[in-house]
Structures are given as C-alpha cells and as structure tokens.
Design brief:
Blueprint (H helix, E strand, L loop, with lengths): L2 H24 L15 E4 L2 E4 L4 E7 L2 E6 L5 H10 L7 E2 L4 E4 L5 H38 L5 H34 L2
Antiparallel strand pairs: 1-2, 3-4, 4-6, 5-6
Length: 186
C-alpha cells in the first residue's frame, strides 16, 4: 500500500459519508411536498416488507400534496396504514385508486425540532469523517513505522488528509445550512 492509495481510500469514504448525509437530509420534511419524504416508508406487501417506491408511483402534483398511485389497487389499505403509522405525522386519505397525502404547514416548534435533527445528522457525519481521517492517519503512521515511507512524506500526507477532511466537513456544513434554511422557510 502506498500514500496515494491511503488518500484515495479516505477521500472515497468521506465522499460517501457526505452523500449519505445528503440522502438523510432529503427525508427531513420542509414546508413543501417532496417525494423523498416517503422514501423510508415500508409497506406490508403480501406479507413481506417492501419499500413504498416499489409498490406505487409517488408524485407531488402540488406544493402541499403528495399522491401515491399503487400498481396493485388491493394494497391501497396497507399503503395508507404504513403512512399513518410512520413518524411523519401525515394523514393520508384514499379514493379507492389513489392515496392523497396533504402536507400541512409546519409549526414553528416542529421546524425547530427538524433543525435539531439536521444538526444531529450533521454532527454524526462530521464524526464519521473525522474517524476516516484518524484511520488514514493511523495507516500512514504504520507505514512510517514499517519504514515504507519517510517522515517528510508522512508529514506531507498527513497535511493532505487534513485538507481533505476540512474540505468534506465544509461541504457537509454547507448542505446542513441549506437544509436548515429550507426547513425554516415558511
């Protein structure tokens, strides 16, 4: 293993961590309807837990409404039940063919709770990025100990790993600020 491999691995893991945070931010409700809001819903489809997106088409025809059109109309009650029992606090209704989910305006208190969730996700992912940095630094120090690299190379590589870490934490903070703004916008 060489220095470039350590840096490449660290960068790939950091990039994946930021992408995971981006996906988790999409599940946080804002004042607008978003099809990503229902990504975590799992429906009991003939006895087997199945993601909602695999049993129905989800769309947002209006800023305050989501519609769920199941491929199989017999599963409409299961879809409705799965949405009601989720932690999204949504109240779906169905007309026999489609489930309509009105997205109510968020209260100020709920917005603040969601901002705290954004902060928690951000901190969790910052910690993950720092752990990736620590692992890369440990590998570099091990390479120095095994005399595979010189002290100067190790110092330079440690600085580069730190720059990577700073860059990805900055990207993560930007994503969090953006999502926070979306949540707090009425």
């Amino acid at each position: 293993m060489d220095i470039n491999q350590v840096k490449t691995d660290a960068e790939a893991h950091m990039k994946a961590t930021v992408e995971d945070a981006r996906r988790k931010f999409l599940h946080i409700r804002t004042g607008r309807a978003s099809v990503n809001l229902l990504d975590t819903i799992v429906v009991d489809y003939y006895g087997s837990p199945t993601p909602l997106s695999q049993v129905a088409a989800i769309s947002a025809p209006e800023p305050s409404l989501l519609t769920v059109q199941p491929w199989d109309p017999s599963v409409i009650k299961a879809i409705e039940k799965a949405i009601q029992t989720s932690d999204l606090n949504l109240n779906p209704s169905n007309d026999g063919k489609m489930v309509r989910i009105p997205i109510p305006q968020l209260t100020e208190e709920r917005r603040k709770q969601l901002v705290r969730v954004v902060h928690d996700i951000t901190e969790e992912h910052r910690t993950a990025i720092r752990n990736i940095r620590r692992d890369a630094n440990d590998r570099l120090k091990g390479m120095l100990k095994d005399k595979a690299i010189s002290e100067d190379d190790e110092r330079k590589a440690l600085d580069e790993v730190q720059k990577l870490t700073d860059g990805y934490i900055s990207k993560l903070n930007d994503l969090a600020r953006q999502r926070e703004t979306e949540v707090m916008t009425v």
